[in-house]
Structures are given as C-alpha cells and as structure tokens.
Amino acid sequence: MELVQFANRLKEIEEEPSDLSIRELIVNMFGDENVDIKIVVRFLLGRVFPAWDDQKLDIGPSLCYNAIASASGSDITVEDIENSLASIGEIGLVAEKYNTSTQRGLFSFGSEESTAMTLDELYSDLYIIASIQGTGSLEKKRRVLSNLFNLCGPLEARYLARLVLSEMRIGVGEGAIRDAISAAFEIPIMDVERALQVSNDFGFVAEMSRDKGVEGVHEIKLKVGRPISSMLAQSSTIEDALSAWKLVSVEPKYDGARIQAHYNGDSIRLYSRNMEDVTKPLPEVVEFLQENLSKPAILDGEVVATDSDGNSLPFQEVLRRFRRKHDIEKARREVRLRSYFFDCVYADGVELLDSPLSLRREHLDSILKEGSSPFLLTDDQKEIRKIELKALEDGFEGIMLKNPDSTYAPGKRGKNWLKCKPSVETLDCVITGAEWGNGRRANFLGAFELSVISSNVDADIEYKNIGRVGTGITDAELEEMTELLRPYIESQTGKLVKLTPEIVLEVGYEEIQSSSNYSSGYALRFPRVIAVRHDKKPGDAETLEKIEQLFKS
Known about the structure:
About 40% of the residues lie in helices and about 20% in strands. By secondary structure, the protein is α+β, with helices and mostly antiparallel strands. The strands form 4 sheets. Strands 11, 12, 13, 14, 15, 16 and 19 form a 7-stranded antiparallel sheet that branches. The protein has a 5-stranded mixed sheet with strand order 1-10-9-2-8. A 5-stranded antiparallel sheet has the order 4-3-5-6-7. Helix 11 (about 175-185) crosses helix 13 (about 200-220) and helix 12 packs across helix 13 (about 200-220).
C-alpha cells in the first residue's frame, strides 16, 4: 500500500465521529490484500515497533520541527514552525501546511507509473532512524526524517509528523484495534484480548488472526524475553480487603521500581514497568538471579535502592540506576540495589496467568532460592496492622493486600491488588507546561503545569490541568528537570512554555478543591513534588474520573 493511500484512509477515519463506523473502516483496511497488516496496525496506534521492543525512534518535538523546517525550504525556520504550532495547536496540521513539495505532489494520484513511497519503504526508513546511534546521531536522524518529509505530499506529512511523535490523533485506541481484529477475522474478543496481553504486539496478533484464524491466536503464548504489562494495584484499606475476601495475602509495599525478570535457562533479561530493557544498568540483579533462579521463568518484582547499611533509599535513587548508561560499576558502588520478587507468571514451561495467586507464589518459592517477598495469608485485622507497622519501621511505604484467589491480569488495575500506605496523599500527574524562572533560576523551568487524563481510555488521550507546582524542588533538581523537559518544548509565549505530555510527576497534596481556574474543574491544595516517575508513561497518569471520586469522598 502506498503512503498516500494510507493517509487518505487515515483522514477518513479521523473525520468519522462514530466508533462503530471507525471500526468498520479499519476492518475494510484489514481486508486489503496489498496491506502489510503488522505495519498498518502499529501505524494506526502511532507506533513503529511493538510496545515491548527496545528499538525506539528517539525523535522528540525539537528534532521533528527541525526536519519539517528543513524540508519546507531555506526560508523556513524552526521558529516559524513553533509559531505556527502555537496558533494551529497540532504538529500534524503544521507539517501539512508547510509541506508543498511539487515533486511529491506528482505522486499523489496513485499513478501506476509513479514511484510513490509505500508503507513498507516508510517502515524501512524509520527503522534506519531508530538504528542511528553515537556521535552526531541527532543530525543524522534529522536528515533522514527531512528527506521523508520531502517525499510526502501535504496529507502524508500530517500523519508522518504525528507518527514519529506517537500522536496519531485519529480516534483509534487499542480497544478499537482489538475489536477490529475480532470482527475482521471472526475471532472472539476474549481470545484476541488474551493474545494481546501475552504478546504486547497488536501487529503480530492481527497477522496471526488473518493468516491462521482462531487457532493462530491460540498459538500465541507467553514467551521468555518478551515482556508483558504489569498487573497494577489501586489504593484502598484493610477493611475493604477483609470485607471482600475470606483470606488476605499481605506483603510489604516497596518504595522502588517495578521489574520483570526473564530467564530462559541460560541468560537473564530485565525489563522496567514500561517494558524497556534495563538488563545492562542492573548487573547485580542479574547476578543475584543467576545464583538463585533454578528454572526458566518470568518473575514480577521490585528493585529498591539501599545504603551501605541496607537501609532503603528514596525511589528517585533506584531510577538513577535504571537510567544509567555509562560507568555502571561506579553507579553500582554509589547506589546499591536489593530485589524482591512477589509473583511468577511462567515457570519451567508452565503458563500461570490463569492460576490463583496462592499457586503462583508456590511456584515462585519452588524455583527461587532467595529473594521472594515475604507474605502472609490471614483474616486477622490485628495481624495485618502488625505487619503494616513493621513494614513502616523497616522503611517501606506500607503494605500490599492481595486476593489469594485472583489471576494475573496484565496491565489491569482491578480490585484484586490493593495498596495501603499512610502519610501524604499523592497523585501521578503529567507535566503539560512550565514557566522559566527568575534571578538565579532564570535558566531553569519551574512552576510546572499539572494535568490529568480526561478522555476515554480508547480514544486519543486528552489532558485537563489541575494546578501548578513549584515547591519541593532544589536548584540541582530544577536543572535536571529542565534538561529532561527541554526536548518536549512545543512552543513558548513570553516565559510560558507548552510541553508535549511526556513526563509524569508524583505530587503530594492536602486536598482537592473545586476550581474554575483550571480546565479540569478542580485544583490541588498545596501541591508539592514527591518524585519524577520515570517508570510511568503519560497514559499511566490519574484520570479526571478518579479526581472526581476523590473530591466527593
């Protein structure tokens, strides 16, 4: 399929208000024999590679703006692109406005004699961009991307800009793709859902569904070395857990970073909550598992930073290790790590996703000599309180309460895992704006605009702001935050900066108030930064629905 044909179909989907009609348009596209369905599905979701693949484009807004300006002519500057973005509000439409290449326009009618770019060719070039590393890599990526814009007509440029920034904005989410796969190939949605959970690759599931039907979908199993989404917890109380379950599994709530360990019987691979490969920066965890793990397995756990006496350090310290690419041994000496594993979803050839937690724990303890997180099954509230007190005394955040009969639900935040922790209330918010400081902080971004998710989870994510935060941050941390946020600057008006939603902050607050000053309709009273959540994506932020529930409670 040619890119211009794909772009026209995307435009049709984008302009269609009905979810049902959007699904039918996707189903029709799946029926095209000339379509590489893997690429189409990934592009529809704004991805080039599967969610679990550590291959990344690493194209930020600034690089994209530079490529668009370069492709638009010598008289067009990055500042022109930014000014247009400020007035238009969306980079795809800006790229469409500036891309008037007469050379590419000759190919826009799908003539058989044309040499129009195909989706396969676009994928190959994007793969090249992702492969560029080392000195001068940003400039090399810019040149390749600029050339791609040169080969695009205006409409193709719209969707190329969105694709490289993972913001398709066409109203197609994962649920729409799941439903379209089910409808196109007559496969029960539950079977498609399960295949997606264990593969984290919508393109692969679509291809197997087309080529082999339901039997092919059933062939998709957990695979060591291919991470799955982590099961998530929600905040609750001991009383709620005891009223819901006969017995409660109680274990410490660690102030660390989630980790998924894959052992194939020979080598260990480690993945973060975002399914990024973090094997290299965590050598001691690899060594620990090599000594203590006896069978091929996929384990769920957490890594905690400690000092030389074994006392737990703040969450930010372990994230420094996750992000470290150089001088690993030096970092290892400065920040020590301790790992705890509390679940097992695969053990020695046996899938355990559908097994109860109690059985998964038995498998964990049978194959892991040391390192299992301590837990207790009880229905005694006093006993749970004692465990909670001990966990807090040991420097942990609180306790986790789990339903021992529950299955493992990848990526789901249900009521079978509950986290109980005292002290300050916190929310995970996305930074969508900031302001340059004054005086000695003039070169630092601060006064960060906080936002929460307002859209339906299956549509393109939209955000509503809920406040601004500038307290709880040192000058050194502000400098680090500025460098972290700089690649995501979309536009600037005076000192105010608009940012691509990418960085998540854990924010403490005293209460939620009704407010007309923010688009969410709410405001956080006395917000303060607790931590930068490098382990979370913008889609992991709190929802407006939750804010409303907290406000009413």
